[in-house]
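To whoever is on call:

I kicked off a structure prediction for a single chain this morning and the downstream step that reads the tokens threw a length-mismatch warning. I double-checked the sequence; it's 349 residues and nothing unusual in it as far as I can see. Pasting both halves so you can look.
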Amino acid sequence: MVVKSSAPRSEPKKPGNIYDAFAKRMLGQVLVFIDFLLNYADKEFVDEIDLTQIQPAPTHYFGKDGDERISDLVFSCPLKNNDKKKTSGKNSESWMAVIVFEHQSKNLKDIPHKLLKIVSAIWEGEKKEGKKVLSAPYFLVLRTGKKPFRGTPPKMSDSLPKGRDGKPLGKMVEIDYDVVDLPAWDVSKLVGGAVLRLTLGILHKMTGGNEDEFPEALLPLREVVDVGERVELTNELLGFVDKAFKARGRSLDTATIRAAMQTVFQGEGESMIKSFIDEREAIGEARGEAKGEVKAGRNMVLKALRKKFKRVPKHIEQAVLSMSDSIALESLLEHAIDSDTLDEFATAL
């Protein structure tokens, strides 16, 4: 069963963020994340935690801006040996393990510094809450570069000055982390439940593999018995593929969608495939029409203002251009026609 994620669904602006947003959207579902841990995390760590009590970590641990952690997934995982008598109250001493999922498509040189900042923020938040026993961090880095990572994962000491003996100067506590390297995997050998394999398979094909072979990564969809859930997942996955294609100057055309759909729904008739394609095309047309109406509305308001007042101040023009509600723009057009001064119009704006 797919559990709805509470992660933000804002449109990524940079191509790299498309992969980050997709990974967070799919693996941010608690059941999928647990599946990921069971199959790819350190076994000793998994054996210590109570999988039934995993939940997203409090967001206030990460400060007000949280810019560092846009692509991270942070979960609190209570340990099995917690003393239940001490798990309530402000000064609870219950032990917690905090997992940080980091989707990383580049090299790993910046990871140690980033993880140090994250765990510092977590501990600072916990200390303010009065916790006496701080969370034990477990860091897992999922890397989706085009080539497998080679060598030893970087350490914080690599960035520090070295003495004459070649050793780092000063005293430094290193932060250990595990690396799960997606490019090294064979999609056909992925393990875990259907949703996890779909997520990792699509990421593999769109980053380290051949993007034109992405339908192969959809094969686990056949295991989803509920047709409605299968259609929902297909929409989610093809939506990501569409964004990834557009970021590379390509388009996900109807023929490609049809080929992918035949991979998934091959035994269930052409009608389902046609219905799915028609629905996507209808949504696309509706969005296009809505964007066209908004653009026309903005132009009409600005045209009316220029005709009446000759010159439109830049801040008013920018305010009009930022509007995305066609009904509000219709009302604003009436104000542009009826206002005697720009100040009067600005008040309505």
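Update from on-call: the warning came from a stale cache, not from the record. Cleared it. Sanity check on the structure: The CA atoms of residues 216 and 263 lie 8 Å apart.
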